[in-house]
Amino acid sequence: MKKILVPALLAVSLLAAPVYAGNPAAAKAASSLKAADKTYKVQPQLSTLGWVGKKVTGQHDGNVQFKDGSVMVRGNQIVGGTFVVDMNSLKVTDIKDADTNGKLVGHLRSEDFFSIDKNPTATFKITKVATLKKADAAGNNANITGDLTIKGITQSITFPAKTGVKGGLASASGTATIDRTKFDIKYGSKSFFESIGDKAIMDEFTLSFNVVAKQ
């Protein structure tokens, strides 16, 4: 009986052993699962996204609203995320006259700029977060790289940001500089229309963001 029992127990123990025994890749995957990323939901009502566009004779500024999104958190660091912007919420804030304001908003919505009727949302998906050893003078502690999609065109961009995770909240703030011509927004660009003089609009505009997400 003993001769039968010992081999049987050995067989059971082998069958019960982890499936990644002797398989480093599987063991690594199992280890990753133990430290699984947590998903935090973007809070549009607590988040802001402002824009500034400059031209030879001045500048205009305004804002748009986040529609939804999620942030991936590992430990106390942001490691990923996807964000959706409601382009229909686009506003101009520096022009007080209602008619002039409306005309500029209408132009920004048109095919010359963001073609909002055809492209009601813009998206940004984080592909890499590089933590800085020391925060810069502005308090930025990370460089974020991701895929920005405007007018159905996707381009990779990188920008500095201040990120943090605490008490069930994840936040990121900073300013990204965008070359609009890479998204087929060429209206008023000297890069394509050399003779427009002081009517030229700069190719680059900035997006200043403050994103808040809750677990």
UniProtKB/TrEMBL annotation:
Domain Lipid/polyisoprenoid-binding YceI-like: 39-214
Signal sequence interval, chain numbering: 1-21
Record flagged with keyword Signal: yes
Pfam families: YceI (PF04264)
Domain of life from the UniProt record: Bacteria
Assigned keywords, A-Z: Signal
Keyword check for Transport: no
Name recorded for this polypeptide: YceI family protein
Organism of provenance: Hymenobacter duratus
